[in-house]
């Protein structure tokens, strides 16, 4: 697979096994700056594992991941953490907000982890909450808001650091279709505005339809659908 | 329904009599409605004329049903082309897709690729609709949603089929 | 009971709805119609018990934790319940072998009499009880534990002393005691298993001037000196201080794994249990854990008491057999602990509504009210204040119940106030660095658990601070300045000496020949009472010590000017009449009631001189040279030898003691110190520190368990924070703060209460209030240590949970 010149992340021939089960068995993937890529595939095919690998959360057993010309697998845990803090954002399916912090504090958290002052962090967080139409729940705790609102808060939190890539694993998995689409719309629009790439794991076609292109994972292998696409 | 392509696919594994072909077709794809003989022979003669099949041998006794047909190289290419080309997303197209998958399994071609290709095509359309939805007015949105949900249903079926290809392969080759 | 068919096969844990062992079992139980009242009640309790065992790994982990926690607490309670027995048995043994016969009508020598003289000695800091025995007839009494009286030169020794004598380390002691070992003192003749004691047979000791006592039996007829009221109060307080945290700990142990239990109960509601049923089931679960805990406690106690014989607390050891809880107290424990456990469970559930779809916590909803939390402290103060100034060391026994009640209430007040305080303070904490924010927000959401657990530490600290203050304060009464001057001599040896100063000099010479002795000074002293009738009815007769020594030795005690043998000097009178006999006065030597007492007249020409105290701190009234009075007059005299030792020879003191034993077994030996603390205090103090540290460790253990539980429940969240790039250190700090904030607040409250309680107690015994910052610092340091320890122990778990597999949905 030849990388497009503007590849932000390229993952080449990743392998990863948990005990005897291979979760990834030769997965390759490229993500260009600013594009929205959907990772699809049946349950257990290794989508989440792939996402965790390219986001530097887990390290693959073999294969290379290059982010902006730097080899991810060669980095120390601390460097990868710093990278995740500064350049990546994350949205998960549920249960990702810290229950004892208010929504505003939750959104400000990545900035504060990255060393920003509280006041500044919360100012930026507030504007993102407004942008995702959940400014009114800023001072409530996650336990006191609905699932859809919670996902929007999570999206705000993923975008607040102005990341280059947002990783989203089933971000609408726990929402009804209307709320799911609303979240997807807000996420992709905001990402496009800020120029962030989005890596979106989903098995819902309507959610995947918000992407620019999809990658199918089956039995731990990516299928080169994009070549057929062209 | 692409009866011609289906016949070609069925002939790819071995030459058959016209009657054989009809029976195989009815069994696998007929879904209770048997092909008329007239349709069978019309299709066969069209295929003969295009050079996609040839008469492999005639058994004594005469009559059209005594002829055995075999696929030509041109016919194989045609099947291949047909299988790898995604169908235009449309309502009720699963019959065609189903035939394609079964034929791919029968002829030892990668059936999963067919599904993935089709999914890509579906998603392409769904993206378009999604884009239209976000720019269009409200009635437009509703119309787009209608189409999106139907396409999604197709895709669900594709997904399900893909997940059960192994089982299908077993049944088909049985 | 619901019947065997519905409570039957539960051997397959963890199927069906998540973590819901036995839910379908319950479902079947529920269908039984018309079962109401007590039977229904027991069925629910029994179901709870079964769930505790068969509800899968989750619930038996919880049951085990509870059982072990309660077990530890119960073992401690049983140990405390055994203290009365320990003290009683010890007192009994000691008074059974008592051989003092004070102020009794004289016993005539006969078949059944025995002569006893003391030969207590010290060897390498071990106190050794020694008696020299001489039977005066065939029916002479035997001390308890001694099968046959030792003959002359024979020894009967305690097992521990036997071991010491057999070891190379005991060489010098063997030399001192002499004799051959012919027997062992049995347990009934010993104060404790590790006691050093011996009986030495003799055929030379004599009664009267020989110094031995004649007795016709062992065993005390007198009340032994009990603890004085002040000490008694202290001991009561110590028990309160140490047992309250144990109660808190048991309370915490009962709640181990409570959150998960609640979720399980919610699943039960889903299949149709009502609110009251879930409470009964929870009670059943707790009850089973607690009953198991009682068993564990009994086993731990029985195993632990075997270890008791290995420990010595200031020369006191305890027989394992004596460590036996009083039956009443043991029953009390067996009944109260389960009842309290159930009560705690039900109280805890009061704040929680278990709905079929989950657990709703009333944390923020009901605000903690201050007034009833202040009530125990106020009541406690009200009980204690009337006692201010009313208790003294010699006075009548204080009302211990009132004191103990007041102290308990004040300390309970700490436990009651702390949750409110933590909530109130934490609610006001804003901002701060990320770990601080995470910790304080977490506490804001549920501060109750940590506050409750920490209240154990707070109570222990408050009590310990108050007690240390009291010790430091009362210590002034018990830690006496002796007036002795260890710079002038290390040891004083004294012995009855009816033979005059020449005999004293002979003894001194033997000490001079002893290895390691640097200086020897010898005096002969005799007590003299003036014969002149006192000036008034309230004036005592003039009296004082006459000290006889050579001129060189006398010069150490006074500026004599000139001195020659035959001279006498009188201490300068202080001005008050009749303090001690002056020049020209006639005196009696020794016991003034004795008809044979010798008379002597102080020479009228004796000059008066300024006298300095001797190394023991005593001031002789008259200094005399040996030639000034006939040796025969000194029948009532004593030899006093002051010996300075070579500090470079560590065994010098043992050589000197051996010399003394070689001169006479009844020579008394005194080691000079400038300060002396009541040994009862050192014991109590050490016990208190040890107890406080153990308590804090115990509480630390329960904090650790709840921290680990919390971390386990937050596995997914931790993984997500890691995905966001949170550093290990950030989360580690937040765990630290989460423990440190409640402990810090608890400690602050404890310091306040402790100082207050200490001040009240001091005022009660009329002592000036002084804050003992040293011990406050020490207790703070121990608490800080516990926080650090708990954090350190939970870090591996934290780091293990900060791995990405936590992201997988469970
Ligand atoms: N931490 C782990 N330990 C053991 N096995 C794992 C672990 N993580 C993933 N697996 C296994 O690896 C395979 C791929 O898992 P993964 O979570 O990537 O699938 P997925 O495509 O995200 O599925 P889903 O759509 O259900 O989320 C599965 O078989 C899974 O059981
Ligand atoms: Mg997944």
Automatic annotation (TrEMBL), chain A:
<dbReference type="InterPro" id="IPR015854">
    <property type="entry name" value="ABC_transpr_LolD-like"/>
</dbReference>
<dbReference type="GO" id="GO:0016887">
    <property type="term" value="F:ATP hydrolysis activity"/>
</dbReference>
<dbReference type="GO" id="GO:0005524">
    <property type="term" value="F:ATP binding"/>
</dbReference>
<keyword id="KW-0067">ATP-binding</keyword>
<dbReference type="GO" id="GO:0005886">
    <property type="term" value="C:plasma membrane"/>
</dbReference>
<keyword id="KW-0813">Transport</keyword>
<dbReference type="InterPro" id="IPR003439">
    <property type="entry name" value="ABC_transporter-like_ATP-bd"/>
</dbReference>
<dbReference type="InterPro" id="IPR027417">
    <property type="entry name" value="P-loop_NTPase"/>
</dbReference>
<dbReference type="GO" id="GO:0022857">
    <property type="term" value="F:transmembrane transporter activity"/>
</dbReference>
<dbReference type="InterPro" id="IPR003593">
    <property type="entry name" value="AAA+_ATPase"/>
</dbReference>
<dbReference type="InterPro" id="IPR017911">
    <property type="entry name" value="MacB-like_ATP-bd"/>
</dbReference>
<feature type="domain" description="ABC transporter">
    <location>
        <begin position="9"/>
        <end position="227"/>
    </location>
</feature>
<keyword id="KW-0547">Nucleotide-binding</keyword>
<protein>
    <submittedName>
        <fullName>ABC transporter ATP-binding protein</fullName>
    </submittedName>
</protein>
<dbReference type="Pfam" id="PF00005">
    <property type="entry name" value="ABC_tran"/>
</dbReference>
Automatic annotation (TrEMBL), chain B:
<dbReference type="Pfam" id="PF03551">
    <property type="entry name" value="PadR"/>
</dbReference>
<dbReference type="InterPro" id="IPR036390">
    <property type="entry name" value="WH_DNA-bd_sf"/>
</dbReference>
<protein>
    <submittedName>
        <fullName>PadR family transcriptional regulator</fullName>
    </submittedName>
</protein>
<feature type="domain" description="Transcription regulator PadR N-terminal">
    <location>
        <begin position="8"/>
        <end position="78"/>
    </location>
</feature>
<dbReference type="InterPro" id="IPR005149">
    <property type="entry name" value="Tscrpt_reg_PadR_N"/>
</dbReference>
<dbReference type="InterPro" id="IPR036388">
    <property type="entry name" value="WH-like_DNA-bd_sf"/>
</dbReference>
From TrEMBL, chain C:
<feature type="transmembrane region" description="Helical">
    <location>
        <begin position="687"/>
        <end position="705"/>
    </location>
</feature>
<feature type="transmembrane region" description="Helical">
    <location>
        <begin position="230"/>
        <end position="254"/>
    </location>
</feature>
<keyword id="KW-0812">Transmembrane</keyword>
<feature type="transmembrane region" description="Helical">
    <location>
        <begin position="401"/>
        <end position="422"/>
    </location>
</feature>
<keyword id="KW-1133">Transmembrane helix</keyword>
<dbReference type="InterPro" id="IPR038766">
    <property type="entry name" value="Membrane_comp_ABC_pdt"/>
</dbReference>
<feature type="transmembrane region" description="Helical">
    <location>
        <begin position="743"/>
        <end position="764"/>
    </location>
</feature>
<feature type="domain" description="ABC3 transporter permease C-terminal">
    <location>
        <begin position="691"/>
        <end position="796"/>
    </location>
</feature>
<feature type="transmembrane region" description="Helical">
    <location>
        <begin position="451"/>
        <end position="478"/>
    </location>
</feature>
<feature type="region of interest" description="Disordered">
    <location>
        <begin position="1"/>
        <end position="26"/>
    </location>
</feature>
<feature type="transmembrane region" description="Helical">
    <location>
        <begin position="370"/>
        <end position="389"/>
    </location>
</feature>
<protein>
    <submittedName>
        <fullName>Membrane protein</fullName>
    </submittedName>
</protein>
<dbReference type="GO" id="GO:0005886">
    <property type="term" value="C:plasma membrane"/>
</dbReference>
<feature type="transmembrane region" description="Helical">
    <location>
        <begin position="287"/>
        <end position="307"/>
    </location>
</feature>
<feature type="domain" description="ABC3 transporter permease C-terminal">
    <location>
        <begin position="237"/>
        <end position="352"/>
    </location>
</feature>
């Amino acid at each position: 697979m030849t990388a497009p010149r503007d590849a932000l992340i390229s993952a080449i021939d990743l392998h990863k096994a948990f005990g005897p089960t291979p979760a990834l068995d030769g997965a390759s993937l490229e993500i260009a700056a600013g594009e929205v890529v959907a990772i699809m595939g049946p349950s257990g095919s290794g989508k989440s594992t792939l996402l965790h690998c390219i986001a530097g959360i887990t390290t693959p057993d073999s294969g290379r991941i290059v982010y902006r010309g730097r080899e991810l697998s060669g980095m120390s845990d601390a460097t990868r953490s710093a990278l995740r803090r500064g350049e990546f954002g994350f949205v998960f399916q549920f249960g990702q907000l810290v229950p004892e912090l208010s929504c505003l504090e939750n959104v400000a958290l990545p900035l504060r982890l990255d060393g920003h002052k509280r006041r500044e962090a919360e100012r930026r967080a507030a504007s993102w909450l407004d942008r995702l139409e959940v400014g009114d729940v800023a001072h409530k705790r996650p336990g006191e808001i609905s699932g859809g609102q919670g996902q929007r808060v999570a999206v705000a939190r993923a975008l607040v650091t102005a990341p280059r890539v947002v990783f989203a694993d089933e971000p609408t998995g726990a929402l009804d279709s209307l709320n799911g689409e609303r979240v997807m719309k807000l996420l992709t629009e905001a990402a496009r505005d800020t120029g962030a790439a989005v890596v979106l794991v989903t098995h819902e076609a309507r959610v995947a339809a918000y992407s620019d292109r999809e990658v199918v994972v089956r039995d731990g292998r990516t299928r080169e659908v994009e070549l057929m696409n062209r | 329904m692409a009866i011609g392509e289906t016949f070609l696919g069925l002939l790819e594994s071995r030459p058959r009599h016209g009657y054989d072909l009809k029976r195989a077709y009815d069994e696998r794809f007929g879904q209770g409605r048997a092909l008329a003989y007239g349709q069978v022979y019309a299709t066969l003669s069209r295929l003969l004329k295009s050079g996609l099949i040839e008469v492999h041998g005639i058994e004594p006794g005469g009559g059209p049903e005594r002829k055995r047909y075999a696929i030509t190289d041109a016919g194989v290419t045609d099947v291949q082309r047909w299988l790898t080309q995604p169908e235009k997303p449309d309502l009720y197209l699963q019959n065609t897709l189903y035939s394609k998958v079964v034929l791919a399994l029968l002829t030892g071609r990668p059936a999963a690729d067919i599904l993935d290709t089709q999914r890509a095509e579906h998603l392409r359309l769904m993206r378009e609709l999604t884009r239209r939805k976000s720019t269009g007015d409200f009635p437009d949105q509703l119309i787009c949603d209608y189409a999106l949900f139907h396409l999604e249903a197709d895709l669900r079926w594709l997904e399900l089929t893909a997940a059960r290809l192994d089982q299908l392969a077993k049944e088909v080759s049985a | 009971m619901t019947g065997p068919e519905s409570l039957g096969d539960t051997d397959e844990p963890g199927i069906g709805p998540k973590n819901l062992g036995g839910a379908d079992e319950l479902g079947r139980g529920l269908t039984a119609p018309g079962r109401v009242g007590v039977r229904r009640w027991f069925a629910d309790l029994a179901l709870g018990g079964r769930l505790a065992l068969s509800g899968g790994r989750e619930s038996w982990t919880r049951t085990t934790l509870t059982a072990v926690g309660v077990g530890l607490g119960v073992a401690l309670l049983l140990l405390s319940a055994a203290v009365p027995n320990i003290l009683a048995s010890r007192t009994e043994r000691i008074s059974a072998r008592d051989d003092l016969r004070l102020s009794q009508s004289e016993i005539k020598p006969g078949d059944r009499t025995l002569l006893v003289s003391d030969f207590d000695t010290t060897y390498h800091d071990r106190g050794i009880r020694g008696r020299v025995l001489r039977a005066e007839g065939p029916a002479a009494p035997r001390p308890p534990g001694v099968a046959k009286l030792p003959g002359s030169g024979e020894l009967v020794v305690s097992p521990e002393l036997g071991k010491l004598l057999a070891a190379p380390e005991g060489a010098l002691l063997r030399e001192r005691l002499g004799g051959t070992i012919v027997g062992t003192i049995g347990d009934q003749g010993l104060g404790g298993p590790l006691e050093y004691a011996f009986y030495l047979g003799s055929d030379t000791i004599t009664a009267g001037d020989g110094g031995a006592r004649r007795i016709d039996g062992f065993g005390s007829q007198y009340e032994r000196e009990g603890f004085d009221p002040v000490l008694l109060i202290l001991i009561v307080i110590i028990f309160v201080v140490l047992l309250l945290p144990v109660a808190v700990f048991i309370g915490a142990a009962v709640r181990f794994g409570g959150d998960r239990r609640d979720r399980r109960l919610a699943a039960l509601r889903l299949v149709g249990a009502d609110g009251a049923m879930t409470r009964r089931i929870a009670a059943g679960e707790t009850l089973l854990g607690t009953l198991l805990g009682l068993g564990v406690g009994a086993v731990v106690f029985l195993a632990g008491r075997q270890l008791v014989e290995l420990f010595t607390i200031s020369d006191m050891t305890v027989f394992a057999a004596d460590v036996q809880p009083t039956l009443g107290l043991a029953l009390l424990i067996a009944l109260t602990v389960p009842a309290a456990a159930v009560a705690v469970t039900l109280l805890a559930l009061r704040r929680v509504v278990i709905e079929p779809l989950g657990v709703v916590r009333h944390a923020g909803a009901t605000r903690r009210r201050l007034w009833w939390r202040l009530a125990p402290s106020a009541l406690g103060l009200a009980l204690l204040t009337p006692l201010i100034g009313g208790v003294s060391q010699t006075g009548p026994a204080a009302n211990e119940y009132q004191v103990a009640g007041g102290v308990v209430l004040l300390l309970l007040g700490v436990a009651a106030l702390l949750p409110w305080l933590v909530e109130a303070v934490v609610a006001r904490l804003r901002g701060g660095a990320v770990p601080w924010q995470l910790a304080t927000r977490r506490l804001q959401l549920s501060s109750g658990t940590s506050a409750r657990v920490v209240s154990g530490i707070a109570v222990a600290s408050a009590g310990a601070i108050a007690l240390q203050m009291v010790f430091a304060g009362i210590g002034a009464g018990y830690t006496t300045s002796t007036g002795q001057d260890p710079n002038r001599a290390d040891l004083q040896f004294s012995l009855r000496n009816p033979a005059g100063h020449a005999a004293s000099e002979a003894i001194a010479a033997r000490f001079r020949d002893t290895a390691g002795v640097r200086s020897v000074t010898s005096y002969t002293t005799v007590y003299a009472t003036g014969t002149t009738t006192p000036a008034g009815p309230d004036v005592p007769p003039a009296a004082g010590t006459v000290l006889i020594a050579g001129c060189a030795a006398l010069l150490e005690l006074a500026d004599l000017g000139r001195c020659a043998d035959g001279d006498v000097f009188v201490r300068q009178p202080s001005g008050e009449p009749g303090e001690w006999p002056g020049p020209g006065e006639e005196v009696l030597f020794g016991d003034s009631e004795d008809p044979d007492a010798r008379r002597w007249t102080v020479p009228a020409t004796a000059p008066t001189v300024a006298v300095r105290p001797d190394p023991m701190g005593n001031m002789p009234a008259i200094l005399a040279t040996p030639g000034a009075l006939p040796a025969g007059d000194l029948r009532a005299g004593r030899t006093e030898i002051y010996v300075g030792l070579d500090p470079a020879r560590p065994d010098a003191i043992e050589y000197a003691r051996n010399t003394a034993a070689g001169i006479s077994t009844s020579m008394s030996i005194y080691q000079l110190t400038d300060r002396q603390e009541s040994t009862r205090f050192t014991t109590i103090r050490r016990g208190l520190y040890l107890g406080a540290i153990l308590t804090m460790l115990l509480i630390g253990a329960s904090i650790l368990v709840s921290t680990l539980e919390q971390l386990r429940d937050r596995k997914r969240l931790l993984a997500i924070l890691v995905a966001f790039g949170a550093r290990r250190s950030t989360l580690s700090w937040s765990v630290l703060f989460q423990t440190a904030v409640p402990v810090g607040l608890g400690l602050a409250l404890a310091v306040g209460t402790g100082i207050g309680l200490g001040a009240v107690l001091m005022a009660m015994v009329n002592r000036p209030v002084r804050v003992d910052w040293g011990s406050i610092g020490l207790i703070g340091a121990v608490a800080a240590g516990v926080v650090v320890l708990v954090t350190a122990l939970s870090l591996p778990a934290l780091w293990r949970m900060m791995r990405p597999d936590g992201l997988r949905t469970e």
